[in-house]
Amino acid sequence: MTNIKQEGNDILNIAKRLKSMAEVGLMYAEIGYDIDRYKELKEISFELMQQITDQPIEDIKGAFKEPLEYPTPNVDVRGVVINEKQQILLVKEASDGKWTLPGGWCEIGVTPKENIVKEMKEETGLDVEVDRLIALFDKRCHPHPPQSHYVYKLVFECKVIGSPEFKPDYEITDIGYFDIDELPELSKDRILENQLLIVYTKLLSGDVEVWVD
Fold first, then answer.
1. Is the distance from CB of 185 to CB of 99 less than 8 angstroms?
2. Dihedral angle of Cα 175, 148, 144, 114, to the nearest 10 degrees
3. How far, in Å, CA of 81 to CA of 86, rounded?
4. Which among 27, 104, 159, 162 is most buried, taking Cβ atoms within 10 Å?
5. Residue 37 shares a structural domain with residue 132
6. Arithmetic mean of pLDDT, 202-211
7. Is position 68 within any domain?
8. How far apart are the C-alpha atoms of 208 and 213, rounded to whole Å?
9. Are 211 and 80 in contact (CB under 8 A)?
10. Are 41 and 78 in a shared domain?
């Protein structure tokens, strides 16, 4: 879902809320009348998405898995590494050719800290240890491109341990350290400049309070 103006993005957020409410209702409804109304509410959410994206409604439905449990936000983890020159580590995504903090979706059975250690190793070849959580971003509160799922983003401070050895994986085409005022083109679905500035400033200033949207 791309190229949607702000007013369309607002409607998309409403549509996602309607869809979530309908899915919760369908999980607990016992009366046929209630079930029919929740199904109708879910269809309305898809119709709203279709109107602002101009995508076929079946394609929109296909982007969502039927929930088996209470619907909750997806969780994304990202790691921040700063070198001795106070530059920030970024990776270049193969999917769009743009740059972001290393990381990805949380996996079931893996703690958030374990998850970012795993992602850092897979995407960069670096072994890291996690110092602390820096920020918890709700993507809805930041000007990311519109997307179908509701996402929380956890950003952790990481330190490289052992001898640094960059080894990009198949999802990453390049790796590098960048000055905060000379950032490359960012993958805005994954990270925004204002978010990098928030975590970078916290790290350099010694601010230990976690940013929470």
1. yes
2. -40
3. 9
4. 104
5. no
6. 94
7. no
8. 16
9. no
10. no
Residues 48, 87 within the same domain: no
Residue 8 has pLDDT above 70, yes or no: no
State pLDDT tens for residues 155-198.
999 999 987 778 777 889 999 999 999 999 999 999 999 999 99
Instruction: Examine the domain organization and report whether 49 and 122 are in the same domain.
Output: no
Cβ proximity of 46 and 12 under 8 Å = no
pLDDT at 154 > cutoff 80? yes
98 assigned to some structural domain = yes
Q: In the block, which residue shows the tokens 């080894």?
A: 167
Tokens of 38: 């929740």
Q: What total of structural domains would you count in the chain?
A: 2
pTM equals 0.70
- What pLDDT is recorded for position 1? 47
Tell me: do 131 and 201 sit in the same domain.
Answer: yes
- Show Cβ contacts of residue 151 under 8 Å, excluding neighbours closer than 6 positions: 73, 74, 75, 76, 138, 139
Domain membership of residue 91 as a residue range: 74-212
Cα 182 to Cα 69, 193, 197: the distances in Å are 44, 11, 12
